Amino acid sequence: MSGNGSTIGKKLSNLSFSFRIARRYLFSKKSHNAINIISGLSAAGVSIGTIALIVVLSVFNGFESLITNMFSEFDPDLRISAVQGKTFDIGGSEFEQVKKLKEVAVFTEIVEDNALLRFKDKQTPATIKGVTSNFSKLTNIDSIMYDGNFQLFDGGFERSVPGIGIATVLGFNAHFIDPLYIYAPKRTSTINLLRPESSFNQEQTFVTGIFSVRQSQYDDHYVLVSIELARNLFEYSENTVTSVELKIAKGADISLVRKKIEQIIGKDYQLKDRYEQQESIYKIMKIEKWIAFLILSFILLIASFNIIGSLSMLIIDKKADIQTLRSLGANNGLIKRIFLFEGWLISIVGAVIGVITGSALCLIQEHYGIVKLGAGYVVDAYPVVTNLNDALIIFATVLVLGFLAAWYPVKYISKTIDN
Question: What are the residue ranges of helices labelled H in 241-387?
Fold first, then answer.
């Protein structure tokens, strides 16, 4: 046991000795000034690559956060839908249990299907989303109203709230006196070839507002109507829905609430959070982010090759020191560790400077928006979100690349010295 402790202590002592010499070599003056210049350029190259990684990943985080906030204005916290089929009945006891959960602040019934819109002489397909009267409490729909206000029934007439893309195509604004007609094929009857127009259900609404999520999948396709109108249009019964959307009470843990609801509704229904509702978009953004990370890491690896030249020249410059260390009993392993630490320290210095500078630039952009996107964009300045996990991943990546760059010249140190 004492032998093992002695061995470990000796190894630690050797590592400490190697590190101290490497640190001295890094900051001390060399006999050839070119070595100092190359070492500085190596650290600068690593710093610039690290800054680029920090900035690019932070910008990706910013755009992801921006899109998430946009979707959160329209998407619910949780959405229940059928595993099989388009519709399901909410008259069962399980949905009453869900509705009575204290963690569920809003329970909204949804009927959603495709239809044809006609305004005057213009037509366009759209997705009709019938919602209950508490939809405004479920989402932040009032905050994304581009024109007019959110109202689905005024006591006498059915109202509708389309997306801004649909309003642009059909050419109307809020409170136009001309009605918006909605057509959907009859589900419960066959098509009449002699009178095809009789094969469609028709509903008439008046536009009371226009919303803008600034996402084409909503703005260009969706029209919000009352759930009663949607059920009449698509011929669904009173308790039939295509989904149920839930808002979780403030302060409640969504993951815990989700597990509780899944136990209540069983395996015939699926429950999706906001990320899963837009899973494809978030996956694409993640893929783009990490592809950019890999490309910049490759550029950083090329920049780290300067360490090879710096170490090679330093090994030659310290040839006499190496011979002295050998005379004092140092083996090749200890000498290699000295120069390996030397190369690694160059990477560490560059990484630390890069992480601090890159994070500072991102924080300045995040709070002051100095770099502008220009006119016509959702936001004025590039959105940036600095993430500690990204900084740690980048720092670790730089250390690994620095180790690989330092390992190559150190591996052949014996041949370099002997020649």
Answer: 254-265, 274-277, 279-304, 306-317, 319-327, 332-368
109 Cβ contact list (under 8 Å, min separation 6): 90, 131, 132, 227, 241, 244
Quick one: DSSP state of residue 85? S
- What pairs with residue 381 in β-bridges? 372
DSSP at 153? B
What one-character DSSP code corresponds to residue 249? P
Q: Is the pTM of this model over 0.85?
A: no
**Amino acid of residue 282:** Y
DSSP line for 189-202: S---SSSGGGGEEE
CA gap 7, 16 in Å, rounded: 14
Amino acid at 85: G
- If you write DSSP's letter for every residue of 383-395 in order, what string do you get? -----HHHHHHHH
Contact 323, 390 (CB under 8 A): no
Q: Which residues pair with 116 in a beta bridge?
A: 125, 183
**8 A C-beta contact, residue 373 and residue 382:** yes
| Straight-line distance from the first to the last Cα atom of the chain, in angstroms, rounded to the nearest whole number | 43
Residue 109: closest CA among 126, 132, 87:
132
**CB atoms < 10 A from the CB of 26, how many?**
20
Nearest-angstrom CA–CA distance, 69 and 77: 12
Rounded Cα distance between 116 and 170, Å, is 12
Per-residue pLDDT of the chain (419 residues), as tens digits, is 444 544 544 444 555 655 566 556 555 555 455 556 767 777 888 899 999 999 999 999 998 888 888 888 889 999 999 999 999 999 889 999 999 999 999 999 999 999 999 999 999 999 999 999 999 999 989 889 999 999 999 888 999 999 999 999 999 999 888 999 999 998 877 666 656 667 789 999 999 999 999 888 899 999 999 999 999 999 999 999 999 999 999 989 999 999 999 999 999 999 999 889 988 888 998 999 999 999 998 888 887 777 777 776 766 666 666 666 666 666 666 667 777 777 778 888 888 999 999 999 999 998 888 888 876 677 788 899 998 999 999 999 988 888 787 777 666 655 545 45
Distance CA 241, CA 225 (A): 14
Side-chain-side CA neighbours of 339 within 13 Å: the count stands at 31
